[in-house]
Amino acid sequence: MPDRRDRRPSRRRETAVPLSVADLDDIRITPSDTGLPGRAAGLTVGEFLATEPRLDEFWTPLLVLDDAALRANARAIQSWCDEHGLELMPHGKTTMAPALWWLQLDGGATGLTLATPGQVRTARRFGVASVMLANALVAPPALAWAAAELADPAFALRVWADSVATVNAMEAGLAGLDLPRPIDVLVELGAPGGRTGARTLDDARRVADRVAASPVLRLAGTAGYEGSLGHDRSSGAAAAVRGYLADLVRLHETVAGLAGGELLLSAGGSAYLDLVAEAFEAPAARAAGTRRVLRSGASLVHDNGFYRGISPIDDRLTPAMRGLARVVSHPEPGLALLDGGKRDFPYDEGLPVPLALDGASVTALNDQHTYLRAAPSGAVGPVDIAIGDVVELGLSHPCTAFDKRRLIPVVERFGSDRVVALVRTFF
């Protein structure tokens, strides 16, 4: 976890006093904070941690983080970016946890990526000075808020646009506002069947022309997301991602011809960052004035599922999250039911994996139950665990893990029972 120093932005127009990571220790724990011991209610986070709590006091089901693994992963992804000449602006929506944001910002990340205006506002509340909104900003109330925040000369905000209609909506929302300076816009390139983003290079170039002509926007670079084009390490997926990234670099060359000043070229989730680094070696990507930015957000936490199977730097990363669930039923031979389910653990990119039960597997999740089955031989697994036993689960996809808890315990390292922090999320 990061040092708890005060980090207050140099100038703000909000009436609320900006918060630092240290302020999170002053949050008061309530009985509705799921999973925390009953004795914690009424104490602040700092007061509770001063009592040296142990993990076996906490109630299942539970998500647990490994402090040593988080720190090592933060160093690993930052070192990898440094080796490849890339900046890191990790996607903060993965955790929505300011303590974890600052762990990476203190470690060399040059800013934060976020997905919604509300997330950007939370980041500003915790003193984050450089934010990329990997989305369009078109809601008038959010545009008005952003315009006010830009009065802080130390605040850098960059948003995405993928159509002329998006630019028109931004201009309409900004009409009549006191805008201290233009809003930086990155042209987003997509691909047929993908997520957002202009579907062709010609469409994207028209967006770039429109942004360049705007009196309230500044053409500030090119961005995209390659992760929706593949879901494995097959040759077909790699070819699709490489082709898309080559087009992104070509678009950036066009944008550089239209815009002056510093430009960003950004791509990269946590699955194909090696292919991003490869594509960003092209001369157009390395032109003077271009900052090449990776947005990998899941690498900080990693996992025992999807990212473990696809990340090109799995050998440098350690899964830093686990689930804990308790056996509550043995309704038939070879089957145990645990007290956690879809409400507690991520499942959209693979089911949880029992970590210390050879041959056992999770076969399904209900809202509040996990189905743990023995191997076909029945020699190991659920038949060997009793009602009341706690099962450790490896989890897949951190992006849908953190939203399920307000306060998440952090142990020194997995295998240790000592809780050293409570990570506060802001979903």
Largest beta-sheet characterization: 9 strands, mixed
How much of the sequence lies in strands comes to: 15-25%
How widely separated are the two ends?
20 Å
The second-level CATH architecture of the domain at 129-295 is Alpha-Beta Barrel
Overall average pLDDT: 94
User: Class of the domain at 129-295, according to the CATH hierarchy?
Assistant: Alpha Beta
Counting H and I runs of at least 4 residues, what is the number of helices?
Answer: 10
Secondary structure category: alpha/beta
Q: Could you state the order of secondary-structure elements as H and E?
A: HEHEHEHEHEHEHEHEHEHEEEEEEEE
Within CATH, the superfamily of the domain at 129-295 carries the name: Alanine racemase
Instruction: Describe the global form.
Output: globular
Low-pLDDT parts are: 4-15
CATH topology of the domain at 129-295: TIM Barrel
Report helical residue fraction: 25-40%
Number of strand elements? 17
Radius of gyration: 23 Å
Structure, explained:
It is a single chain. This protein is an alpha/beta fold and about 425 residues long. Among the domains are: about 130-295, Alanine racemase (TIM Barrel); about 315-425, Beta Barrel (Lyase, Ornithine Decarboxylase, Chain A, domain 1), CATH 2.40.37. Helix content is about 25%, strand content about 20%. It is built from ten helices and 17 strands. It has helices at about 45-50, 65-85, 100-105, 115-125, 140-150, 165-175, 200-210, 235-260, 275-280, 305-310; strands at about 60-65, 85-90, 110-115, 130-135, 155-160, 185-190, 215-225, 265, 290-295, 320-330, 335-340, 355, 360-365, 370-375, 390-395, 405-410, 420-425. Strands 1, 10, 11, 12, 13, 14, 15, 16 and 17 form a nine-stranded mixed β-sheet that branches. It has an eight-stranded parallel β-sheet with strand order 2-9-8-7-6-5-4-3. α5 (about 140-150) crosses α6 (about 165-175) and α7 packs parallel to α8. Residues about 5-15 have low confidence and may be disordered.
